[in-house]
Structure formats: C-alpha cells, structure tokens
Amino acid sequence: MGFNVSTRRELLALFGAAGLACLRVPSARASERMRRIGALLSSSADDPLSQTVIGAFSQGLQECGWSVGRNVRVEYRWAAVDDHLMRQYAAELIAFAPDVVLAFGTVAAAAIERESREVPIVFVNAGDPVGEGLVESLARPGGRATGFLSIESGMSTKWLQLLKEVAPQVTRVAVIRDPTTVAGAGQFGAIQGVAPSLGVEITPIDARDNAVIEHAVLKFLRRSNSGLIVTTSRLARHHRGLIIALASRYQLPTVYPNRYYVTTGGLIAYGPDFNEQLRQAAGYVDRILNGENAAELPVQAPTRYELVINLKTAKALGLTISPTLLAHADELIE
Q1: Based on the domain organization, do 299 and 173 belong to the same domain?
Q2: Do residues 265 and 295 both lie within one domain?
Q3: 86 inside domain
C-alpha cells in the first residue's frame, strides 16, 4: 500500500458549496467606521511562522477591500504554548472590543470563547472543533465560532504511507502527538489503525516539553529501522527545532504535517497550505463584518494539500526519493 500522491489535489472542502468569496464593496467601506479584529496566535512573536500568519491574513483582508489603519484595525497577541498567557491575552483582546476574533488553533478559540459569549470567532488550524466543543457540527456550527480544519483525522494515514514510500526499511515508527487534545488522539488512532497493513509497529511520544521529547526519542532508538511522524500540534510546532535536530542527529526519516518544518531542515511534509487557509479565514472575517452569522458559515476542510521535500536532508539521511514522488512534489528544497 503506497502513498497516493494524487490525493493532494483531490481533497475538497467538506462544504465547498458555501463559498468563501469576499463581499467586495471597498468603495462603501471607505466611509465606514473603523472595524476591529482581534487575533490570538498559539505561536511566539519571534517565530517566523507568526509573520507568515500575519502576512497571509493581511493579504486576505486587503483582497476583501479592508485596509489596516484606514477602515480596520488588527490587534495581535502571541501566547505560544503558555496557557496562562493564552487566558490573559484572550481577556485583553475581548477588552479591545473586537467585532470578530481570529484564533489560531482550538486552544486559542476556546480561550476567546471563555472570555466572551458575544464576539464571533473565526478559527484556523483547528484539529477537531466538534470534539473540543467549539461547534455543534461542521455543516452547522450553531454558535459564535466557525473556521477551518487543520487536517481531517483520516488524512493522517497518508503520513505513514509517505514514510514507507521514502524509507521502506522502516518497521518502527514513533508518533509525536499532543495527548491532551481530541485531534491528537484521532490522528494517532488513524495511524495506528493502518500500521499493521504496512508492517509497522507504532509508539506514541507525548510532545509535552523538550526534556520529555528527547528522553522518549532516545528510549525509542534502542532498536533499528526506526522513523518518526509528527502530527499537528501546537506543542510539536513550538518544539520543532528540537524535533528536527533529533531526527538529523539520529538519522531518523521523519514526516511532518506542514511545510514550515521542512524549510528549516525537516525531511518531508504533507499538509494543508496555511497561506491559503488564512486568506480564506479573512474571507470569513469579511462576511461576518458585513453582517453574516458565524453559526451559519460551515467549518471548512483544507482545499489544498502540499507535498514538500528537502532534498538536502534526504541526501544526508542516505535516502533516494523516487522520480514519481519528486514529480508530484509541490516544492523541492535543495
């Protein structure tokens, strides 16, 4: 059972018929009152990913006719993996009296929801918003929150298929996950379910902190033919420098959930295009600012998945990437 690269082009939004187009009336907006958007991010201010988020979201707002400083003001807060800061910044953003809040991840969305029962929320990179209680269903969110999934749990099986494609000798795989989230459990369960058919033994590693991750990886390395999978998690994202370094140091073929792992030295990634998702989120924010109800805007699945390969890392690991996989990659880093 090989990795089916064609799926990266085939997965559509769960409810694409709803559409994500902006309500383009920029000329009318010029005379409107200044609108306010809060943004709570589960990354740090100095993380390059934060600048990517800001840039893509700002571009999406501009495409919808919003100009920062002219007819809209955006207030950002970066809490990383500090739950105390997440609560503090959520309170600060609600005090800012926003018309709508952009929340990066389910933890950020839940923090905003605890602070206010009135402010609409558009989340991105959400693992399981139904399981986490943010929405009643994907088709009909029903409350004040809606947005975009990070990945549908069943898609996580592609990571294991991809790992076997690039490193057929791997028979033991450690899965770095966040055990405290519904999405973390769902992704791990999907990988574990397909593992026997691929002849792979699965071991979970909890992405709690650097010490826990490093100790677990060293323990896992007592046997050969090993590889890693990193699932979507704010904890794994925060500790990605260590994870990438460990994979390099111990020659572990590793599959990551997003491009930004591979641009900083990771081997290969398969996951949603964050830039596209953030531009789409700006479209939802635009629709809410123009009077639509978040409860009636369906939660969307990713519309585009990226396959990104770091050829320099592959060479360092002694791996030969097949011509088929190279041909289907969206980006090759050399």
Answers
A1: no
A2: no
A3: yes
235 within domain boundaries: yes
19: left (phi over 0), alpha (psi -120 to 50) or beta: left
Same-domain status, 31 and 133: yes
Compute CA distances 92 → 76, 119, 273, whole Å.
10, 13, 30
- Rounded distance, CA 220 to CA 230, Å? 15
What is the separation of C-alpha 61 from the centre of its chain, rounded to a whole number of angstroms? 20
Compute the C-alpha angle 62/261/4, nearest 5°.
Answer: 95
- Asked if 245 contacts 251 with a C-beta cutoff of 8 angstroms, the reply is no
| Residue spans of the chain under pLDDT 70 | 1-21, 23-32
30 φ, ψ (degrees, to nearest 5) = -55, -30
We report the CATH number of the domain holding residue 206 as 3.40.50.2300
Q: Please give the pLDDT value at position 23.
A: 58
Q: Are residues 132 and 227 in the same domain?
A: no
pLDDT tens digits, residue range 248-265?
999 999 999 999 999 999
pLDDT at position 185 is: 87
Asked if residue 160 and residue 145 are part of one domain, the reply reads no
State how many domains the chain has.
Answer: 2
Close Cβ partners of 218 (under 8 Å, ≥ 6 residues apart): none
Task: Please give the Cα distance from 193 to 195 (Å, whole number).
Answer: 6
- Cα–Cα dist 99/294, whole Å: 12
Confidence (pLDDT) at 8: 37
Which pLDDT tens digit goes with each residue over 191-235? Answer: 999 999 999 999 999 988 899 999 999 999 888 899 999 999 889
Range of the domain at 235: 153-271+306-333
CA-CA distance, 145 to 128, in Å (whole number)? Answer: 13
